[in-house]
Amino acid sequence: MNHRRVVERYYGDINNLAELLAKLVNAYRLLIGGAGELNGIALARKKDVREAIDRANELGCVIDEIIDTLEQCSCEYTNYCKIKGDILKSKVQLKYILTEIDEELKLKD
């Protein structure tokens, strides 16, 4: 497997984690809201409310783990992007890039 494919898959993994995080945070908010509503019901038992809060706390721990993982992974990917940008800056002259952009804009008009 070439290096580019490894980096693309790594980026894909980061995206998957970010999407999972968004879904879990949404579920967490719903669990917290459900526990709050349950607490507002006069006939609800304290045990049921505590269990609902415990479920939300368990999901909160999973969310924390995903956040930690994303922080570690995204730092490595950010370093990769910075290194790639530095290499591009040293290899490509700015005037050629500006010329390409100008030509594209002229073609669109």
Query: Radius of gyration, rounded?
Result: 24 Å
Give the structural class: mainly alpha
State the helical fraction. Answer: over 70%
Distance between the termini: 42 Å
- Beta-strand percent range: under 5%
Number of domains: 1
Number of helices: 3
Strand tally: 0
Would you identify the regions where 5 or more consecutive residues have pLDDT less than 50?
A: none
Most strands sheet: none
Give the overall form: elongated
Q: Average pLDDT across residues?
A: 88
The ordered string of helix (H) and strand (E) elements is HHH
How does the SSE layout of this entry go?
Layout: H1 3-40, H2 46-91, H3 94-108
Helix pairs in contact: 1-2
Quick structural summary:
With 109 residues, the chain is mostly helical. It is 91% helix and 0% strand. The protein contains 3 helices and no strands.
Could you characterize what this model shows?
The chain is mainly α and 109 residues long. It has one domain (3-108). It has three helices and no strands. Helix 1 (3-40) packs antiparallel against helix 2 (46-91). The radius of gyration is 24 Å and the shape is elongated.
Summary tags:
3 helices, 109 residues, 0% strand
